[in-house]
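ok so I'm stuck.
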Amino acid sequence: MLGVAFVPAAVISMALVVGGCSAGVGAGGGPSRTTTSAAGSSGKSLPARSGTTEQRVRSQVTRWLGTPHRMGGQGAKGFDCSGFVQMVIYDEFSVRIPRTTDSQWGVGREVARAALRAGDLVFFEPDSYPRHVGIYLSAGEFAHVSTKKGVMVSRLDDPYWARHYSHVRRVLAP
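replied:
not stuck anymore, here's the structure
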């Protein structure tokens, strides 16, 4: 007879917290869920995704809009900020970035705020938690995961975000 391991709820909860937005270095560079290759399950090549970077990111935001915040989450049941950013960047551009905000904090290259372009990672240092990340869209808008509203679009010039803005990192090639 096969034995079943019992894992206390406190251990599971701690694992989710460690993988979340303000957590330290994560354990891997890619999504934890199963993904298919560009050839798909049939082995036939799929057409490359089309559209501008902004259109591609907005398409993901529209798909997930309102999905709740869930610390350590990376899917339909919920996302945390770094899980959402990691999923969008990988699913749309096949670029692997670290899982946690702390690890994403230094990935790619830093760019000036005046040079922002769609797909750039925008970082904040709010009072309520150590760090937060979103993806820049255009015209001052960025997509992120709010603890209260889930996946949403906000403005960089909103007084809250303007006050807590930290820096921008570019992970996508021009």
